[in-house]
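Example (one chain per record):
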Amino acid sequence: MKKLLIADLRRIFKGKGIYVLMILGFIFPAISALIVQLSGLANDVAELGDLAAEVFNPVALYAGSFNPTQNIGLILLIVVGVLISGEFTNNTIRNKIVAGHSKTSLFLSSLVTVLTYVFVVVLVNSSFTYLFNSISFGLQPFSDYFKRGLVAYSSIFVIYTIMTLLTYQFKNLAGPLGLVLGIYFVLMMISTIIFSFNGGTGFKAKVLFYIFPFLYLSGIATPIKLEWLWATLTNVGYLALLTTLGILLANRTDYK
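Predicted structure:
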């Protein structure tokens, strides 16, 4: 598997795609920060009320940079979908099997490659978001960013693990992408309704966030108090479960 993984990683870092996304990961936060500065929002946010203060602050904007349906998040999801599905449309998977690689190695190599790709791009985007908004709004305690980061990165990994697992079953782009976005949007709408209906307080309002911590990425009607330890450990559990399931399904699927 080591040689296979090295070859897969070398392929993505030799390509231009990851570097284009890294540049976009700088451009999007820079444009957002420029708008904040030109509009004077950084100086006037306190006068706009508590709601605006909750939305337009460095920690909230940092958390929002992980949203998989906004700006670079959606672009990244599509690009990664194309990257994984290309293994099947170009018969790369079949060639790897003929070369003697096991199906377990194929799935794990693809998963590690995808998560590495995603981590690099998201790290660039979130880091510049943190930097520019800290300049605009001032620094916040690092522990706030650390907790948000743990939940956000583990949530992103869960989403892309699901994407990889589904692509290995559908062997195309449309099915997995449609399912991931569809399920995410449906859960996001349901969680927003439940959260708002219960006034944003109590267990009932947060129940879906306990079950599906990646909903914290939506940034819409999410709990102010982050149950970061529970969310992170739950995501780690999902990662272990999904990886195991992916291996089992991969070994039962005919890729020839």
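Caption: Residues 16 and 22 are 10 Å apart (CA to CA).
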